[in-house]
Design a protein that fits this description.
With 306 residues, this protein is α+β, with helices and mostly antiparallel strands. It is 25% helix and 30% strand. The chain folds into three domains: 133 residues, no CATH class; 33 residues; 133 residues, Nucleoside Triphosphate Pyrophosphohydrolase. Its EC number is 3.6.1.22.
Length: 306
């Protein structure tokens, strides 16, 4: 199977994002008041849930939440039904949950496995947009207030001599499964600063200005682990709106098995054989986060050889 075509957690949402509607305020306002319109309420980046999962509000309850929300964004269309997200962060958690008819608030990452992948993707999409709005209240150029526009997909600086358009940012990061040269097959895992003892994961880092993704792979592996890599090969990508990431997965081959961790971001790094990783799984340890692309990178590597 082509790993680049796989849908990972927080991808594959079922919405038509309906870009042209974002610039039609008359139609958006009409959709907001339709009884069939669905509203997804969030509170400080957390889903509001009942016994069945994240609540989906319509009719009077949706109208009440929309009127109380500090920010509303148009997410798209589910068939002919408009879907909005509403931010109730200005309320207390109790007030927000009661208004939404929910029981509590939960991080969407804690719901993976219980939600259908497409539902998790839409909740993460809503979370990422609403988080951005709370962080982008003012123009970074002139300091004037920035006003939401475009169905919540852009903010416009209100400064008379500025008017800059501000779009939701995405922060790309690379995540890499590094293989040792030669036999036996081994991959490099590291223990990051702040991680529990014996908690290992793949290496990752943010892409810097003026870098290609492949450049970032080579730089990060050299800086963090003292490893020079070749054969950098794209494996897949994953939306990671926590708050604004895009994880891009690669596989690469080290030119030697020498490792020198930086002692800052990485505390230690070591090579693992497939047998060692299978033993870790058998003992109850997980291979990275089950909702993250590093889990898929490690699974694919284990499946590549007996």
């Amino acid at each position: 199977m082509d790993t680049a075509e796989r849908v990972l957690a927080y991808g594959g949402g079922w919405l038509d994002r309906a870009g042209p509607l974002r610039t039609d305020p008359t139609r958006l306002n009409a959709l907001r008041t339709k009884s069939t319109t669905v509203v997804l309420p969030l509170w400080r980046d957390r889903c509001l849930v009942d016994a069945d999962g994240p609540v989906r509000l319509t009719a009077e309850r949706a109208s009440l939440v929309l009127s109380a929300a500090s920010e509303t964004v148009f997410l798209g269309l589910d068939g002919d039904v408009a879907v909005f997200a509403a931010d109730l962060s200005a309320l207390t958690e109790q007030s927000a949950t009661e208004m939404a008819g929910a029981a509590r608030s939960v991080d969407v990452r804690a719901l993976v496995g219980r939600l259908e992948p497409g539902d998790a993707a839409v909740q993460a999409y809503a979370r990422g947009l609403l988080h951005w709005h709370r962080q982008q209240r003012f123009c970074g150029t002139c300091g004037a207030p920035a006003v939401a526009d475009g169905g919540g997909h852009v903010r416009t600086c209100s400064g008379a001599e500025c008017g800059r358009l501000l779009f939701p940012r995405i922060e790309p990061a690379i995540i890499v499964l590094v293989e040792a040269p030669g036999s036996p097959g081994r991959c490099l895992l590291a223990r990051h600063a702040g991680a529990a003892e014996d908690a290992y994961s793949t290496l990752a880092g943010f892409v810097e200005v003026g870098e290609s993704l492949e450049d970032a792979v080579r730089r990060e592996m050299a800086e963090e682990a003292g490893v020079t890599v070749t054969d950098v090969t794209y494996q897949g990508s994953q939306a990671w709106p926590f708050p604004a990431g895009l994880m891009v997965g690669f596989r690469a081959t080290a030119t030697s098995d020498e490792v020198r961790v930086d002692g800052d971001e990485l505390l230690e790094a070591r090579w693992f054989t497939r047998a060692e990783l299978r033993d870790r799984v058998a003992s109850g340890r997980t291979l990275g986060r089950v909702d993250a692309i590093d889990h898929r990178l490690l699974q694919d590597w284990l499946a590549a050889a007996p």
